[in-house]
Amino acid sequence: MRSHWPRASRLTGVRAVAFTFAAGVPLAVAAQSPPSPTPAQPAPAAPAKPGPFVEEKPTKVTLDLRVTPAVSFSPARIRASAELKVPDDRISEFYCAAVEWDWGDLTESEESNECEPYEAGVSDVQRRFSAEHTFQTGGRYRVTLRLRRNRKVIASTSTTVTVRPGVRDAIGPDPQP
Fold first, then answer.
1. How many helices (H) and strands (E) does the chain have?
2. pLDDT by residue (tens digit) across 30-74?
3. Reported pTM
4. Number of neighbouring beta carbons within 10 Å of residue 73
5. Which of 18, 30, 115, 147 could form a disulfide with 97 if both were Cys (CB 3.0 to 4.6 A apart)?
6. What CATH class has 62-164?
7. 4 burial class (0-12, 13-18, 19+ CB within 10 angstroms)?
8. What pLDDT is stored for residue 68 in this prediction?
């Protein structure tokens, strides 16, 4: 009888597998697992990740914009939604910001509020924004959201909406025979 010792398997965690052959027929298979860590050598800990319901604190300002549907047929009613993430030390900059939507079809929407003076820990900063718009004709439109304070843009983001020609869009004159 002879034994054959192949290399350790990286996929299974098995360090060594011994096959014993007698006249070319396997008789026994023995597996040896890697040694367990001893108290003196603890297993390396994976870095802690926040759970699905734990929100990480932002380190920079981000304004994420999504439109649904991103592709449709005219006339297309589009819903745009955005989320603002701001570090705690910059929250006062975004208090009572005016919201401006540029739909990319020569129309704009604007919302501004009358606000009390900012008080740390008391004043609430709007973090979610949404609006709806109907595109009447086909085309590619750049939808832009701007947050303004004292006429200065403090955050801006944009995305593209594709509206395909629909039943109402003229395809053009009938071809001549």
1. 0, 11
2. 444 445 555 555 555 555 555 565 566 667 889 999 999 999 999
3. 0.62
4. 15
5. 147
6. mainly beta
7. exposed
8. 96
What are the φ and ψ backbone dihedral angles of 94, each rounded to 5 degrees?
A: -105, 5
Per-residue b or e along 101-129, where b marks 16 or more CB atoms closer than 10 Å to that residue's CB: bbbbbeeeeeeeeeeeeeeeeeeeeeeeb
Dist CA 96 CA 158 (whole Å): 21
Indicate where the chain has its CATH 2.60.40.10 domain(s): 62-164
User: Tokens in use for 85?
Assistant: 């993430």
pLDDT in tens, 64-118: 999 999 999 999 999 999 999 999 888 899 999 999 999 999 999 999 888 888 8
